[in-house]
Amino acid sequence: xxxxxxxxxxxxxxxxxxxxxxxxxxxxxxxxxxxxxxxxxxxxxxxxxxxxxxxxxxxxxxxxxxxxxxxxxxxxxxxxxxxxxxxxxxxxxxxxxxxxxxxxxxxxxxxxxxxxxxxxxxxxxxxxxxxxxxxxxxxxxxxxxxxxxxxxxxxxxxxxxxxxxxxxxxxxxxxxxxxxxxxxxxxxxxxxxxxxxxxxxxxxxxxxxxxxxxxxxxxxxxxxxxxxxxxxxxx
Length: 235
Prior knowledge:
Elements: H1 2-76, H2 81-88, H3 98-104, E1 107-114, E2 121-128, E3 138-145, E4 152-156, H4 199-207, H5 210-214, H6 220-228
Antiparallel strand pairs: 1-2, 2-3, 3-4
Family: Belongs to the nucleosome assembly protein (NAP) family.
Keywords: Chaperone, Coiled coil
GO molecular function: histone binding
């Protein structure tokens, strides 16, 4: 009899444990479902906030435009303004070869323009005075965000070099104490290289070591630095 009572007690305890476990699991599932509902609500609010921010950004882009135009007119009266600005910049200064610097003496203005829908992309346009190097008076590179995954379509002006002029193939040399090598590729190779950028490229760039940098395509380094400093170039 004692043994039977002990057996019944253990069976009862086991049943209670299973019931408690089921109750805990149900509560956990309900909590997770409620948490997801709240997260969905937050995401909806964030999307609405992003739309409002974009509306404000578009509005003030239009207001800034005439101010940038006035600033450009003053800049045109300052000799070698853009050459000096690039050479004074810690990242962009490394992108200009000696020959590029000669061409930059003819750069009259630089324009960074967001698309009307700022989520769609932007363009960077370099305006040049008549010069002995190429026929173009302006060179443009356009970055169009192709999808929500971060892929970017890149198009650029094909430079019409004058006879005897053009991009020289440069050689990368290691710069002491610097992970990235100093480049001798012409800045203007940036207009002839239009790679498709997506998340895989971004991941590759982040994980690249010194050997990876030696394998970069001409113009890729310029793309990275110009993208990083696009806001500093607005004028």
